[in-house]
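Students often ask what a holo structure prediction actually looks like on paper. The answer is less mysterious than it sounds. You provide the chain, you provide the ligand, and the output is a string of discrete structure tokens encoding the 3D arrangement of the protein together with adenosine-5'-diphosphate.
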Amino acid sequence: MNEVKTPKKPLIYYYVIMLLILLLFNFLAMPWIAQRQIREVDYGTFMQMAEDKEIGQVEVQETENQIIFTDKDGTNVYKTGMMPDPDLTQMLKDSGAKFSGEIIQQTDPLLSILLNWVLPIVVFVALGQYLSKRMMNKMGGPNSMMFGMGKSNAKVYVKSSEGIKFSDVAGEDEAKENLQEVVDYLHDPGKYKEIGASMPKGILLVGPPGTGKTMLAKAVAGESNVPFFSMSGSEFVEMFVGMGASKVRDLFRQAKEKAPCIVFIDEIDAIGKKRDGQMGGNDEREQTLNQLLTEMDGFEGNNGVIILAATNRPESLDPALTRPGRFDRRVPVELPDLKGREDILKVHAKKIKVADDVDWEKIARMASGASGAELANIVNEAALRAVRDGRRFATQADLEESIEVVIAGYQKKNAILTDREKRIVACHEIGHALVAARQTNSAPVQKITIIPRTSGALGYTMQVEEGNHYLMSREELENKIATFTGGRAAEEVVFGSVTTGASNDIEQATKLARAMITRYGMSPDFDMVAQETVQNQYLGGDASLACSAETQTEVDRQVVELVKRQHRKAIEILEKDRKKLDELSDYLYQRETITGEEFMAILNRDGKSGN
Ligand code: ADP
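The corresponding structure tokens follow.
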């Protein structure tokens, strides 16, 4: 074994430390041990013993100014201080004592052998044992392959030590219902065997990041009270071809030993990507995938090992992996809806102290589109804010502010806008809100602010969806585009010039218009033909074109036409409502932040607007 490779600190490090300890021991402890056995006596006793011829060996240490001597049979060692005694040598000679130079070392030959030879050997052997054991553990057990590189390293949560239950996962009722069956099976596999039904071997949890896929897998283990092996797809992929495959083998071997149990592979797309058969493909990844496919085929449906896997790129998975018999069940874990968001907020609010009067529904409404992880983050941010402000619990205001922090970043305390810039931003934001409010189907405005944020936004209008929208009509989409263009339109109407502040609006309006034409079949010319296909549904939803160059030109033309039309509409609305636009912009400019109610109150006041 090439041991030098593995531990983080080189072995020589440990040996040098040991050597130092031994040297110290020799210098300090040995003389002490030897000294301990020497009895100190006065000079009189020494003379008396010499006279009585009771001295065996004697050593005169002039440099130390002492005399060391033994009794006749050499069992006891004595020490005494030296006196200026010219007859000393003669007296000792007469007493029949033997002159010797090494009394101390000779005192106990066994002890000195022990200390000088046996102890160092024992220490070194023990150190060697300890190090090799540590290395083995690191690599995964004594019977591991070469350095244990082929071991799975899966984290095992026996009996779900984290204790996550379905009740901890809020919302996601469909997913929970689907997984409940697995729990039921793990509790009582006999029931299923009796009928001859076999559980799916693999269940694929798909959904955007942070929607609770990992949590659900842990909850299944927690509910069914079985061991839970957790591993990330990327952990399988090693530097050497074949190592990942052997890790897969090892994982399944362990799982079968512990059955019934759950194996959870997070981010399975790291190994499960489509094999494209091109030159220079990733051999290691493909072998690992092949091994996974073989292992999944290799065990019978009813042996109690259930494989859960999570991914946010299901479309990139190899079809062989998702065919029935392997990952044959797919459980979508989608972004939570209004009710789900409220539930998730409440679950996480249990962990912090909150005021009693918090309106969770309102918070959930404001956080539209947020994932479970983001909601957890929002609650935590609120708690942090409360601490920062020296309060003992989080309030509604904390929660609302933390939503904005998560969406737009922290308030930029020292961003100083010029007066004119501030007026333009106020007018821009009111433009969005006014266009939204004047179009019948647009969602009402929740809050408008012109306090700059660290994300770079100089201000923003927070719109709130009233309920859950599953379908959107062409008119609603068009209105949305008009609302996006409302900010720029207001600048044009009031100031007669345009600024760079609308770049984000432009991006969003274009994206929406493009989707309407290329994917939703809302263009007059293309009927129900798709010009684009979405690639990463759960990761931003990038689309790739699937049409000829001529059609692309036509698509571009239509997108521009659509946005232009909505832009014109927004300008018309604002021109008609110019008075309100000015009044509201001024109000926002003074206050910096206004709520939806304030906005609506001014909008509906005395109706003297041009509307
Ligand atoms: P994923 O695996 O889907 O990326 P996780 O399961 O790791 O997401 O979730 C991350 C965190 O988000 C969790 O630890 C939890 O705090 C929170 N979370 C996500 N979804 C939920 C939910 N439905 N209920 C409660 N908390 C959730």
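The chain is about 50% helix and 10% strand.
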